[in-house]
Amino acid sequence: MARHLLTLQDLTSKEFLSILDLSAAIKRSPGKYAKALAGKSLIMLFQKTSTRTRLSFEVGMTQLGGHAVFVDWKTSNFTLGALQDETRCLARYGDIIMARVNRHEDLVIMAHASSVPVINGLSDAAHPCQALADLLTIKEKLRSLKGRKVAFIGDGNNVCHSLMEGCALAGASFSFAGPKEYWPGDDVVKFAKKSIDVRLTDDPKEAVRGADVVYTDTWVSMGQEAESEKRLQAFMPYQVNEALLKESKALVMHCLPAHRGYEITDGILDSHASVVFDQAENRMHAQKALMLFLLGVKP
């Protein structure tokens, strides 16, 4: 049976950490892996727009010696056929599938139908590839993950969910601050609390106190545009700005694209503490390692 990655809960702690180690090795010596996926094809299915996910997967697959194919959901027969039937066809053409979708339930259907690995490139519930890159970046900058404190400020969304799961697998504590009606899902919190200390609060100053990393994301994700005004009002007190981080030496992270002047100020995003572009680069290295892991390739 194919091994899929729909959320980080699909991995053990040992597997998660081994993927991070492989990511770092690939980043240090990319030439050693230049033919690791020669003759393999990655099919990339997009229902949502993308910059980093598409480019990091496509370039990453090319650098591993393989081939990547872009499929636009809207201009393909995914708009006409049954999802499980279209997925079975993709699995006949490619060795691995990455899908960026609106509904997480669609990924579950795809995984059940596919005979090859399916990777979640983003859904409304999770963004595991982003979290892999995030934890790789933290490990690079701080040398260790276990015992670190990661604070997420804003919306308890898909990025927050996967980051919390990644922290649980890596042994880093997690604090969250946001309006109570936008707190992360109970199932993710329950999973994380089995392994690490998780604190939820509506006070951003409390959440960032003693944090090694402060992370934020957009307040209005794709598909939530109708709620923009309501969300902007609710989240403005949770802006990551100079006042909030006045006494902090934490790394600042954002998965991008950032809405400058809303969830984060220019001064913080462009500060020496910001590692957002290292995160963006590390998407490619982490995803290379993930594809090798799911395909069972050991170069």
Low-confidence stretches: none
What's the CATH H-level homologous superfamily of the largest domain? Aspartate/ornithine carbamoyltransferase
What amount of the residues lies in strands? 5-15%
| Annotation, overall tally of beta strands | 9
Query: Roughly how many Å is the radius of gyration?
Result: 19 Å
State the CATH class of the largest domain. Answer: Alpha Beta
Could you tell me the mean pLDDT? 97
What topology, given as strand order, has the largest sheet?
7-6-5-8-9
- CA-CA gap between termini: 21 Å
Major sheet: 5 strands, parallel
From the spread of the alpha carbons, the general shape counts as globular
Number of domain units: 2
User: Treating each run of at least 4 consecutive H or I residues as one helix, how many helices?
Assistant: 11
Structural class: alpha/beta
CATH topology term of the largest domain: Rossmann fold
What series of H and E elements makes up the topology? Answer: HEHEHEHEHEHEHEHEHEHH
Question: What percent of the residues sit in helical stretches (DSSP H or I)?
Answer: 40-55%
**Any guess at the CATH architecture of the largest domain?**
3-Layer(aba) Sandwich
